[in-house]
Amino acid sequence: MAILARRLTIITLTAAIFAMAFSAAVLHSGRTPARVHIGTAAPCYHPASPSCVAVL
Description:
The chain is α+β, with helices and mostly antiparallel strands. It has one domain. The protein has 1 helix and 2 strands; from the N terminus they run αββ. The longest helix is centred in the first third of the chain and has 28 residues, at 2-29. The relative contact order is 0.12.
């Protein structure tokens, strides 16, 4: 029974680490919108400003 519990613990911890890494990767891809200004892309710090246009 101890071997089964140890294996289940290892599998659970591995799945938790994978889930946290996957969620960090997903959040990182859409974190900072950029604005377009004369062909350049820069971070959009104030999304309410008229010069801030999100790039798709």
